[in-house]
Design brief:
Radius of gyration: 39 Å
Structural class: mainly alpha
Keywords: Membrane, Transmembrane, Transmembrane helix
Oligomer: single chain
Length: 122
């Protein structure tokens, strides 16, 4: 194929490119319109804020989120404290002491039973 084979279709190619460009521009307008309608902040080409949200509703929302964040941090701190206590109890020597005592009792029973068997009383 040569370049001269595309000459009859040049008008259609230009029209298709124009239609695609127009649809892209319309889509961009629609996205911006939806952002404005739903309260999303508008951003420039490099992400800078064009219209910072400084109304009373946004300030109230920030205040509520800050309070909730403080409450969650306090709750997380108490959970960490409880976890430290549980770890201390589990790793404490007294926790394993009961298991060791039971093991000694079992071994003492086994020795007593073997002594009785040796004597012929069991």
């Amino acid at each position: 194929m040569q370049a001269s084979d595309f000459l009859p279709y040049l008008g259609w190619i230009i029209l298709a490119c124009s239609v695609l460009a127009g649809l892209g521009i319309l889509a961009s307008f629609q996205v911006t319109r939806m952002k404005i309608k739903n309260g999303y902040p508008l951003e420039g080409m490099w992400g800078q804020s064009l219209k910072p949200g400084s109304d009373k509703q946004t300030a109230h929302r920030v205040t509520l989120l800050t309070q909730e964040n403080a409450e969650l941090r306090a709750e997380l701190g108490s959970v960490k404290d409880r976890l430290i206590n549980v770890e201390r109890i589990v790793t404490d020597g007294g926790y394993h002491l009961g298991a060791e005592i039971e093991a000694l009792r079992d071994s003492a029973r086994d020795r007593a039973l073997s002594n009785l068997k040796d004597k012929g009383e069991a």
